[in-house]
Amino acid sequence: MSTPIIEASAITKTFPGRRGGQPFHALRNVSSKLFEGEILGLVGESGSGKTTLSRIMIGIETATTGEVSFQGRPVQSRADWKALRRDVQYVFQDPFTALCPTMRIGAALAEPLAIHRLCPASERPERVARMLEMIGLGPEMARRLPAQLSGGQRQRVSLARALMLEPRVLICDEIVSGLDVSVQAQVLALLVELQRKLGLSLIFISHDLRVIRYLCDRVQVMLLGQIVEEGPAAQVFDAPENDYTRALLAAIPDRDRLPVSESA
Amino acid sequence: MTTPLLTVQDLAVSFPGQSGPVRAVDGASFELNPGGRLVIAGESGSGKSLLCRSLLGIQPETATVSGKLEWKGQSLVSLSRDQWRPLRGASIAMIFQDPTAALNPLLSVGRQIIDAIRAHRRCPRDEARARAVEVLGMAGLPDPEHRLTNYPSELSGGMRQRVAIALALSAGPELIIADEATTNLDVSIQAQIVKLLRRLRLDLEVALIFVTHDLDLAAEVGGDLMVMYAGQPVEMGDVQAVLADPCHPYTRGLLRSAPTLRTTREVPLQPIPGQAPKPGSVGAGAPFRDRCPVAVEGVCALQRPGWSQAAPGHRVACHRFEKDGRAGLP
Description:
- The structure holds 2 protein chains of 2 kinds.
- By secondary structure, chain A is α/β, with parallel strands linked by helices.
- Chain A is built from 10 helices and 10 strands.
- Chain A has a single domain (about 5-230), classed as Rossmann fold (3-Layer(aba) Sandwich), CATH 3.40.50.300.
- In chain A, the strands form 2 sheets. Chain A has a 6-stranded mixed β-sheet with strand order 6-7-8-3-9-10, with helices on both faces. Chain A has a 4-stranded antiparallel β-sheet with strand order 2-1-4-5, with helices on one face.
């Protein structure tokens, strides 16, 4: 089997308790691998550790024990992390807080290019315009402020900003959770198209199993800081082995699983 | 024939705008019988929350409610604050989306429920306390006796929502309005809360209005469904019947853009293009016309569609359906 593009091995994360309280074990010996070109789904309810795991994989959070490797090499020094963050980008759940409210969209998209010195300043506007076109927004968007955009447009801009560095891996943390269903479908369609066009590898975090089923090739189900089940999406969804996975699937509202009996 | 609990006819909620009133809810009509249930479904900006608030008289102060709104035959449209008091909370109770914001963080759970009970009924503290324990138990909170001394911050989100439900039950209402009451909860908790609401409706014979953006969840709740778009109801009927045979282009689009546990990338979702109109920008004409793949030229832009019958008890407000029936639908 090929080397995973990014791998977290035996990660443990413990947050200290408040003033003499019990420490909180957010992750207990969790391992995760992402292979080239695949979409990996991390599913779990709040507090299961899925966000913490993904934040450790990009170095926003440090693991108590365990190791992150990128393309087969352990990530250790500051320089290692900076290199990783060029190739691995993170898209946050809330596009309202992820974008600076006083920065115009064009400037927000150009900033990563400046930070990583990817191209001369004179080329930036053109690259911003190309990116806006790719995510289905007009060039006039560059002059707008985040407050002038709808939630769906803002989430597209967050995606665009992550893609400016032409990353190989995208970590998407609940990026469609706050969106309306019709807009959610637009963003999911865009994500599928971009993934195919750019050959991205994706970690997609969601509590919504319906979205995970739609998008992901492989799934890891998390509960209380541990992975309780993992495998190809079809297998996990159609023949779940773990009791918690089964309970989670049974809790998803489903228009086809009815009619509801009056006796409730 | 039973007298309906709630009669809503051509209800509009409007705000003052630069060029005349802006109708954020327009043409809502439905009847709710004792013990009945209605699911109101729509996306953000569809007016579903505002409609619910107007049923309780808690719409923003700048809003004007017009049309017919009757509680057991009594008009609610221009009640004064004092006239609302015996109804609000006592006969009609509401459960909000965010239980953290709905509960006072500085008062214990018991104090809040006891206060609510005594606001509606003069009774000794002991009796109110016993009732508080009873409603917490009905809301499925384990060990209700001991929960009285807890503060909201000591409870999980699901527990807080159960406290909010207990609060809604405390004065023995005949109608409970749940406005996206499960949206912020984990799916397993959401399933528990929906089950609880269904059971309470049957046990206490209380009517339920359930507001959601999730049509699958609407199906789990059951009863009648009203789909709203841009402030207007566009399709109504039994929830099973509507989901099995959706007849409005918007309802159909919504169902095609919502993944289920069986949809995968091989059969791509079909997003509805464009975005929802701003409140008040719809004007005359069909509210969905700009995003509708089968808008009738020269008609949808000018005339608001009336109701057509799709099946007994199932109606739809769509020019295309009126003209071509199911054959014309996308």
